[in-house]
Amino acid sequence: MSKGNDDKPITAKKFMKEFHRYQKGSITRRHFLGVTGLGTAMAVMGTAAPSLWSGQANAAGELGDRLVFSTWPNYHDQANLDEFTAKTGVNIQVNAFGSNEEMLAKLQAGGTGWDVFVPTNYTISNYVELDLIQELDLSRIPYYDAAANNPKFAGPATVNGKVYCVPKNWGTTGFIVNTKKIKSQPKSWKDFFDVTMGKGSGHTILHDYQLTTIGAALCALGYSFNSIDAKELAEAEALLIKSKPHLFAITSDYQPGMRSGDGWMSICWNGDGTQLNNDLPEMHYVIATDGGEIWTDFYAIPKDAPHLNAAYAFINFMQDPNIQAREAAVHGYAPTDSRAIALQPPSLASDPILHPAENLMNGLEFGAAQTLTDPIRAEVMARFKSA
Amino acid sequence: MSKDNKANRWLTAALLTPTSLWFLVMLIFPLIVILVFSFGERAAVGGYAGGFTLEQYANLPSRLKAFQNTMLIAPAGTLLSLIVAYPLAYFLALRVDRKYKLILLVLVIVPFWTSLLVRTYAWIFILGGRGIPTLLEFIGIEGVRLINTPGAVLVGIVYGYLPLMVFPIFVSLEKLDKTLLEASSDLGGSPFKTFMQITLPLSKPGIATGCMLVFILLMGEFLIPAFLGGGKVFFIGNALVDLFLQSRNWPFGAAVSVTLVVIMLITVSFYMRMTLRNKTGRDESLM
User: Which range, of A187-201, B44-58, B156-170, averages the lowest pLDDT?
Assistant: First the structure.
């Protein structure tokens, strides 16, 4: 290509003229790319891009350039994900899910292409049984320190003596109330459903997630959050269907609805409660007095993860106590790792939403493994949604 | 049989092979799988377990509401799209200056350059509490709720499907012989009468195609009701997403799919018979 063309950019008119010549076949593709500068542009991008994107950590390229990560809404600080990309050259493709069942459905169908995902405590033993996740090589996650993690939260990671995942955060499932709209201070799930079908009619959001939505109804009726008893589930279904005309929405991505003022109450995970409360002080997070969920989320690697090296590098990066503390500052969920908790500012470490008093959590239950695959719970949820 | 003829046949067969294979692998085979699955049972942890039972079909009434919603809102959405699209297509085909025609047509397609998901998400904010309802409060109308209602879903449908309705109607109106309109007015026909007796009948093929395109797609729609209906306006498409992606009841999902296909076949064949029956002597195609 001639030197003259590289000096100044081509004009639009000249470009179109050359383009038409190329279309008509008067000039070759090579000449077209050369004269318009497109060839140069592509050549520059082709050579410069990798060196711009890949840092030292990925010098040999063993991490690849891509990682597919499946997680939950509002659960990460984008700045930390960007930092991982900047350090390693691995671009992260994030998928957000609203329920563990949705993740399980994708994994069961196969060919997800996921490298890392975030399952909740009660699903791990199922995943192991169904042979969908791999045992972790902890030597590749040096930042993980088993001793720093409270076994109450980290326990479900170990199945039959093998470690299948490392903890991410723990939290509670309660509900959020917009106190400007609802003055009656609901304290229990029973109150929650009463207000939904009373003064707050038309403004409640339930999760699109069987565990928490059915669990909330079960608690309101005085049963266990985890019940798989057919009779109790039938009563829970009746309550849910009765409340349906009074709902604003059924969705696990409830923040937009709460922020827009359409939603006055929603089933809520505590970190989302913190996020909402930070921006809108009238949003109060409540741990229900008649029960609810306490949970731990983990990082796990699916059996057929295509970018295994990147997966380990990413999990290790996310286990760095500094990163954990920075994540928690944004998403509002408590780390299980005592090293990360030590790094949190005192305001967060004593935050009642992040670290509720023990006595408030007495009635809370960890999700039970059988709720994930129980056919009645699955069908109750599906029927409620299509009712 | 001449040699040429034989060669021709081979050529035809060769040209049809890719399409036939495509249909076989991508349509017929999956349909057979769905049919077989629909007589099976849900495996203990979800998915499909073999067997032969009519249980799944017996369970269909539990999704009655979803079928009803779809059968009501899909035709309503089609009709509404038609009402909005026809004047636009008419304007573009007959009224607009040739100079601007192309650019205006492009403007109709421009929204298609962005994903429907993103555009529908934008509607969540427009129809949500901080959007139009806030504007209405300024003029004293309070407590209006737009999002998560059938109305919001209809708005989303008309917005999303408009181009699919506009183009077939535009094409049939553009082909319209304008001397017929002049003749009508020369003979004393009022503009209304001209429209009813000439323009409308001649644009019927476009209307028929547009309606069919929109209706068929709407019957399987799930994104718009999920986003703008907030899980409260539930289509059969949403029930299917649920059955495969949440409760993992593949056999029941398959039975619902088969039922949907049957309903579609009946509706569409009925519709085609209706629209193609009034032959005007010449061959009337759908385009």
Answer: B44-58
Report the topology of domain B38-277.
MetI-like fold (1.10.3720)
To the nearest whole Å, the CA of B135 is away from the closest chain A CA by: 13
Chain A residues whose CB is inside 8 A of the B249 CB are 375, 378-379, 382
Residue A101: inside a domain, yes or no?
yes
| A121–chain B nearest CA distance, Å | 17
pTM for the full model? 0.81
How high is the ipTM of this complex? 0.82
- CA gap A126, A119 in Å, rounded: 11
**What residue spans define the domains of chain B?**
38-277
Interface test with A, best of B245, B249, B252, B259 (most A CBs within 10 A): B245
Least-confidence region, from A13-17, A226-230, A337-341, B86-90:
A13-17
Domain that holds residue A192: 171-294+362-386
CATH code, A143: 3.40.190.10
Closest-CA residue of B relative to A253 is B230
Same domain? For A185 and A279 the reply is: yes
Chain-chain contact of A386 with B234 (C-beta, under 8 angstroms): yes
- Tell me the nearest-neighbour CA distance from B247 into chain A, angstroms: 5
